[in-house]
Design brief:
about 220 residues; binds 3-methylbut-3-enyl trihydrogen diphosphate; Undecaprenyl pyrophosphate synthetase; binds magnesium ion; two-stranded parallel sheet; mainly alpha; three-stranded parallel sheet
Length: about 220
Amino acid sequence: MDGNGRWAKERGLPRIAGHREGSASVRAVLKACAEYGVKFLTVYAFSTENWNRPQEEVDFLMELFGQTIDNEVEELMANKVKLRFLGRLQKFSPELKQKMSKAMEQTKDNDRITLNVMVNYGGRAELVDAVKEIVAEGRREIDENTISQHLYTKGLPDPDLLIRTASELRVSNFLLWQIAYAEIYVTPVLWPDFRRDQLKAAIEAYQKRLRKFGKTAEQIDAG
Ligand code: IPE
Ligand code: MG
């Protein structure tokens, strides 16, 4: 979710106004995904590197996460959304951690769509944590599945579509392992402006892609 700061700047507003508007985009995109039958939506809300932003902005984002949980859980329950926070959650304040676990516990049996919110998340940190667990378990036989099953995303399918807003042409440490074969869609639209119509355009673009997974186009055509 990129471009919140630029969205605010264009309007002469403080960056935090962009983050607030961005949270409305999460709500809109989640709703549209649920209606389209998407089963998993994963959003990158806060990276392991975002702690380096101005303290005021970091504090605001922490506040926003807490407030959003308080305000949205009821609606998530009504819409059967399973909410999960994935990342190095240890680093958050006890209050926020408590809110996150409570919201995850409350929504855990919802089955219409899963919303994964990646917080204090880094793809490299996730791989380090996975390797540590694998070593601690004393495993000798390691294959790709072993790695997948030790990531925060264990049990979830790899993403089919990766949407990158605000024209950024980099992965920024997001789901490094899981996006091996994801289709990438880059749009100039800033995240606070990314709503149902923009999601629809991204899905339509995705539907025109030919996913080959290393095979030739002829093999795919032959089924
Ligand atoms: C993304 O928007 C939101 C978070 C990382 C929390 P940015 O804040 O990175 O927006 P730009 O890049 O300054 O426009
Ligand atoms: Mg940015």
